[in-house]
Design goal:
- The structure is a single chain.
- The protein has a five-stranded antiparallel β-sheet with strand order 2-1-5-4-3. A five-stranded mixed β-sheet has the order 6-7-8-10-9.
- Helix 1 runs antiparallel to helix 2, helix 2 runs antiparallel to helix 4 and helix 4 packs antiparallel against helix 6.
- Strand 6, helix 8 and strand 7 form a beta-alpha-beta unit.
- The radius of gyration is 34 Å and the shape is elongated.
- The chain has three domains: 135 residues, GAF domain (Beta-Lactamase), CATH 3.30.450; 53 residues; 131 residues, Histidine kinase-like ATPase, C-terminal domain (Heat Shock Protein 90), CATH 3.30.565.
- The N and C termini lie far apart (126 Å).
- The longest helix has 61 residues.
- It is of the alpha+beta class and 427 residues long.
- Adenosine-5'-triphosphate (ATP) binds next to helix 8 and helix 9.
């Protein structure tokens, strides 16, 4: 009897155990299915984001110097709306320093405009909070529609504006959203900086060509005119004894006409050639970059150019611009400096560039691996047959020196100026 009862109890226990195990399994399977569905959703979202990023990358690649900045603003606002998964996004681009233009504001709200959001007003209020050297995301109420999350669109040297997205009242700002917005803002900063650099190259190209034409006229036609005037003068002296008024008169006419043509040509050359007008396109571009980088990072930059930029080839101009950008970015990023001194000496056959900061410094040769900046600068200088050195020690600031001693026009490795490697000079 007792044995049968015990057997029944065992059976009951086994039954109970099996049912609870089945329940646990069923719950586990449900959880796994949920997790799988969430994973599939996340995967699809990642795929979508990657597709958006790749098409944005292509659009940015195609974005050229001729294109309107408003086009880029609309592009970035549209991608911000998609990638941040928000109802609307906007981009405010500030006018360039010294420009009379109005700021550009692009709003992307695919479900129709949000009349309750004063985009320009909120973005301007956020802009007023952007402090030099501080580049964090800011959130401000945007009426009843929610909040506006905005991040600066910037490069190392300039802050171009703000990219923002609208977060609904019941939605979260979320670190992912902030990251996506920051990523897009960085891409925009790179595209805008590239456009600005290309504009500088285009100006350099034009000024180089103008200087070349002016030099050609100076060395060619002008010299012929001087020869004509001189020959007419010599003839008139030689035949002074003939007392032939007619011949003397005609010779004076030739001489005066040649002198007048030479004077007019000289005036045209001065009008045509930026170098003869005393304009230094490269130096001015570099000065403008350093000025905005100083303002953006709240530091002092002392730029000391010496000599004429005509002594340096356009290819070297480009390399120097890249080196100054990298060295100053390192000084701010790694050195946390408060002051940078940029010294640039340009003389025929010798160029010296020195970028000195008062930052933390570092043990040269023992820096963390993986950085490309120092190697790139060294390689660039090597391609011009020049030297590159870094002097630094912890707590003693950093000094980067580049020297191109010989004629850099022999350089072969670096020629990115699209056919403007022509020698130029001002006579
Ligand atoms: N001016 C500087 N002040 C302090 N440390 C510097 C300075 N310049 C370079 N360094 C140190 O040298 C390292 C290498 O610099 P490098 O420019 O080659 O690479 P990176 O800046 O780290 O990365 P990347 O330039 O590729 O973005 C830096 O990580 C930093 O530790
Ligand atoms: Mg670097």
């Amino acid at each position: 009897m007792l044995g049968v009862a015990a057997e029944k109890t065992w059976l009951l226990l086994v039954f109970l155990l099996l049912t609870s195990a089945a329940q646990v399994f069923a719950r586990l399977i449900r959880k796994l299915q949920d997790a799988y569905a969430r994973l599939a959703e996340a995967h699809a979202a990642t795929e979508r984001s990657l597709q958006h990023i790749s098409s944005l990358y292509q659009a940015l690649e195609a974005f050229s110097v001729q294109e309107d900045k408003a086009h880029l603003a609309h592009l970035l606002a549209a991608y911000a709306q998609k990638l941040c998964n928000c109802p609307a996004a906007c981009l405010l681009l500030r006018p360039e320093a010294g420009s009379q233009r109005e700021p550009v504001l692009a709003v992307c709200a695919p479900d129709g405009p949000s009349p309750r959001v004063n985009w320009a007003g909120v973005m301007q209020r956020i802009w007023a909070r952007v402090e030099p050297g501080v580049f964090t995301a800011t959130t401000l109420p945007a009426g009843e529609s929610g909040r506006l999350l905005a991040v600066p669109v910037r490069s190392m040297g300039e802050c171009f504006g703000l990219l923002g997205c609208l977060v609904l009242p019941d939605d979260e700002t979320g670190p992912q959203r902030e990251k996506a917005l920051g990523f897009l803002a960085n891409l925009g900063g790179i595209a805008l900086e590239r456009r600005k650099t290309e504009q500088l190259w285009a100006r350099l190209l034009v000024s180089e060509e103008q200087n070349r034409i002016a030099n050609e006229i100076h060395d060619g036609v002008m010299q012929h005119l001087f020869s004509i005037a001189f020959a007419a003068h010599a003839l008139s002296e030689m035949h002074a004894h003939l007392q032939n008024g007619d011949v003397q008169q005609k010779l004076a006419l030739v001489k005066n006409a040649a002198n007048q043509a030479a004077r007019e040509l000289r005036a045209s050359i001065y009008r045509l050639s930026p170098c003869r007008r005393g304009e230094q396109v490269f130096v001015a571009g570099l000065a403008s970059y350093l000025e905005s980088m100083a303002e953006l990072n709240g530091i002092e930059v002392d730029f000391r150019p010496e000599g004429s930029e005509e002594a340096v080839s356009p290819a070297l101009h480009k390399a120097l611009y890249r080196i100054v950008r990298e060295a100053t970015a390192n000084a701010v990023r790694h050195g946390k400096c408060t002051r940078i001194q940029v010294m640039l000496k340009m003389a025929p056959g010798k160029m010296v560039l020195q970028v000195k900061d008062d930052g933390q410094g570092f043990a040269v040769g023992r820096q963390a691996p993986g950085g490309l900046g120092l190697t790139n600068m060294r390689n660039l200088m090597a391609s011009f047959g020049g030297g590159f050195s870094v002097d630094s020690a912890p707590g003693r600031g950093t000094r980067v020196t580049c020297v191109v001693p010989a004629d850099d026009k022999n350089s072969t490795a670096y020629s990115g100026t699209g056919g403007i490697g022509v020698e130029s000079r001002c006579g």
